[in-house]
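Subject: for your reference before the review

Hello V.,

The reviewers asked for a structural picture of the protein, and I figured it would be easier to keep everything in one thread rather than splitting it across files. Below is the amino acid sequence we used in the manuscript, unchanged from the supplementary table.
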Amino acid sequence: MITDFYLMPMKCAKAVLYKTITTTISCMLICFYSFGQKDKNTMPSKKTEINYDSVVYYTARINGDYIVAINTLYYMLAKDPANITYKDSLARLYLISGGYDKCANIAEQIIAKQPDNQRAMEFIALSEKALGNFKYALQMYEKLYSQTKDLGQAYSIAELQFGLKRFGECMQTIESILANPQSEKKTLQVYATAQTEQTVSYKAATLNIQGMVHKELHETQKAKVAFNEALAIAPDFLLPASNIKDIDKNNPTTKKK
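And here is what came back from the structure prediction:
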């Protein structure tokens, strides 16, 4: 998971958002290619008559030909419109290929039938974030997190809350992440710049967001404390180091504090 879209200069934002989504999707490809059990209804059985739609879909999928795979899924859905497996696969293909609006639309159809479908919720959250619909993406992440308590989803919530300037809620989310012992062990990738990726613990990344909240609230000393705590965990972490330099540059009296 690559994040911190809101936590860098705006000139890098568009490039980083694209990389964030595509990298998240790349991680999802691991699940995608191990999806044979889930997709067994779309694959032919040796003991039955060959379903050529399934053969075309499966072959296109493993060869990365998303256009053919998507078109084939529509043929399959025309024959079986209520098949959730086909819709799940279609939404996944649209997400991977950058058709975020279409992915969200298909995932919404799944949610209408299965309100607690967690994969569909995540498809919507990722797609809406990519489309710039941050409020709706946040709503979906919050609904998803209430079911999963997943650390990565909590971090995405904090990130979106910061970007939407919902600082009170953001600080509550930050506290819940920092209270989770897994935040010290689990890692994620963040973009310090549009070209530079770093792997840090969730705790270090979350402390950087905490510092950013304090910085936005003009609480410079509290901001520096949070940034320094992040650096104590990850000494090479560029974002908090850059944030401290920015504070010192704009507030010379805080430099030695």
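For the response letter, the relevant points are probably these. Strands lie at 2-3, 187-191, 197-201. The radius of gyration is 21 Å.

Happy to draft the paragraph if you're swamped.

O.
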